[in-house]
Amino acid sequence: MMVRSRRLAAVGAAAAAAFALAASPAFAHFCSKSGWSDSAYAHAAKSKAWLTADEWKGFVAGAVAEGEICAAGAADLVAQVDSRPSNTLFMGPGLLAGGTLKNGKDNTPEHFDYLDFETAFALCG
């Protein structure tokens, strides 16, 4: 029984590691979507995937506190968040299934945008 448990644990750990390696590029997508209807905005804002501007700014403040981004980079991200329309929600730090720029076909939906992390982190030197 103990050997079976160890074997099962090893297989589970290997599967989790393979998934993490395969999925790691998808963790980089931090997008925003505006143009929600009032009803859709209210429902999406209650989800764990979409964050309001204030929630996103709280996430950025936490990243500064943890030393994950410098103050200048955080200020840039906050400015980007503040520049979006008031009915914008932001994808939280989570796993997405491939993004919208598939195969170079420019099929990003209307009202959809990405936060520019390259510029923000470049400010951190």
What does this entry look like structurally?
The structure is a single chain. The longest helix has 22 residues, at 2-23. Strands 2-3-1-4 form a 4-stranded antiparallel beta sheet. It is built from 5 helices and 4 strands; from the N terminus they run H-E-H-E-H-H-E-E-H. The protein is an alpha+beta fold and 125 residues long. Helix 3 (53-65) packs antiparallel against helix 4 (71-83). It has one domain (27-122). The chain has helices at 2-23, 38-45, 53-65, 71-83, 117-122; strands at residues 31-33, 50-51, 89-91, 112-114.
Alpha plus pi helix count: 5
Q: What overall geometry do the principal axes of the alpha carbons give?
A: globular
* Major sheet size, sense and barrel closure: 4 strands, antiparallel
The Cα radius of gyration reads: 18 Å
- Seen as an oligomer or otherwise, the chain set is single chain
Give unreliable regions as ranges.
10-29
Strand content: 5-15%
Placed side by side, the strands forming the largest sheet appear as 2-3-1-4
- The domain count comes to 1
Helicity, as a percent range: 40-55%
Strand runs, count: 4
H-E string = HEHEHHEEH
Quick check: average pLDDT? 73
